[in-house]
Write a structure and sequence with these properties.
Oligomer: single chain
Distance between the termini: 18 Å
Radius of gyration: 21 Å
Number of strands: 18
Strand order of the largest sheet: 6-5-18-15-8-9
Shape: globular
Largest sheet: 6 strands, antiparallel
Length: 344
């Protein structure tokens, strides 16, 4: 039978950043991974200003643990309040020592991980630490690593959503993937399911993206603000940075497929090995009578990598639901099938 770790991140359930943000789950230092301030560092510099959770696990965690125990699994509940405490849990998935000295996940591990998440940002926080643990430096790239990847297959995880509302109109990643939300069903997936491999977006800011990112902002009345950036997808230039933009969506899954009533992404697929990118550009056109009007032009492209280079100021954005600002060039690239979820 399996050893199962039920991991909860030690932040208030409604805190925007969650644990894994720069070394502290309840405020504290920022920029632990990159040495950068919290601007332009999605996932590696956000600050969680919420209060710490209590020591007692949430009800869904207890229910999941009860079901696992009833099935004969050895269960441990862990509340991690820092990146170091997350890392201590993930170390249990290390494989045997390799001749090249790299730390690699054990493909035959009898330990399984359930991540209790109040947000996609918390799930991402754990995946970010997995990537940091197992991704080799470019100078130490081993011969057995696939040519289209920079890291090995990460250990599968189970997702236990703590917010039922995010399975409805505001769909989190678990809802998009059709993963179970009931604690007993999550337990069944852990013990009886199979790994479902999914693509991962890495970025040059030291973080990862599971769902997607949405760049842009609005004023206090909700009117979109114009900004400029050069956006490239592989060899396709969606905009050269000279024209105003209303939004840019970088999609691994479909969380940012629409903005209000505008369709940005048409077919984001977290398992197709590509990222879908869209920019929304206001274009002035003239009618046959010479009258001017503005229509919204959406340009799209798919590929292996995308870069966004802001031309002026700071560009606010959401990355897996976590707020940040872009002040310099940011690149995302696809790691096909790099992570996995337990599903039935």
């Amino acid at each position: 039978m399996y050893d199962v770790v039920l991991l909860t991140l030690g932040s208030e359930r409604d805190a925007p950043g969650g644990c894994g943000s720069g070394g502290a789950c309840c405020g504290g230092a920022t920029g632990a991974d990159t040495g950068q301030p919290n601007t332009d560092q999605a996932g590696s510099g956000e600050t969680d200003t919420g209060q710490c959770a209590t020591e007692r696990p949430r009800v869904p965690v207890l229910a999941c643990a009860d079901t696992l125990n009833a099935r004969g699994a050895r269960v441990e509940t862990v509340t991690a309040r820092s990146d170091a405490e997350i890392d201590a849990v993930l170390a249990r998935f290390d494989g045997p020592a390799r001749p090249d000295g790299l730390t690699w996940p054990d493909p035959d591990s009898k330990t399984r991980l359930v991540i209790a998440t109040a947000s996609d940002g918390q799930l991402r926080a754990v995946l970010r630490r997995l990537v940091k643990r197992y991704a080799p430096a470019p100078s130490k790239r081993p011969a057995d690593l696939p040519g289209n990847r920079t890291l090995p297959d990460l250990p599968p995880v189970a997702v236990l959503p703590l917010d039922p509302a995010r399975g409805g109109t505001h769909r989190d990643l678990a809802a998009q993937l059709g993963l179970p939300r009931d604690p007993a069903a999550v337990a069944a997936a852990v013990l009886d399911g199979t790994p479902r491999r999914l693509d991962l977006l890495r970025n040059d800011g030291g973080s990862v993206t599971l769902d997607g990112a949405l760049l842009g902002a609005a004023d206090d009345t909700g009117r979109p603000l114009h900004w400029r950036a050069r956006v490239e997808v592989d060899d396709t230039i969606l905009t050269d940075g000279t024209e105003p933009l209303l939004a840019c969506a970088v999609g691994n899954a479909g969380g940012y497929a629409t903005l209000n009533d505008v369709t940005l992404l048409t077919a984001p697929d977290p398992a197709d090995g590509q990222v879908e990118v869209a920019v929304a550009v206001p274009v002035v056109v003239r009618s046959a009578w010479g009258r001017k009007r503005v229509r919204l032009e959406v340009r799209r492209a798919r590929g292996r990598a995308v870069s966004v280079l802001p031309r002026e100021g700071r560009v606010p954005y959401l990355d897996d639901g976590v707020e940040s600002e872009l002040t310099r060039k940011r690149s995302w690239w696809v790691e096909p099938g790099a992570w996995a979820v337990w599903s039935i």
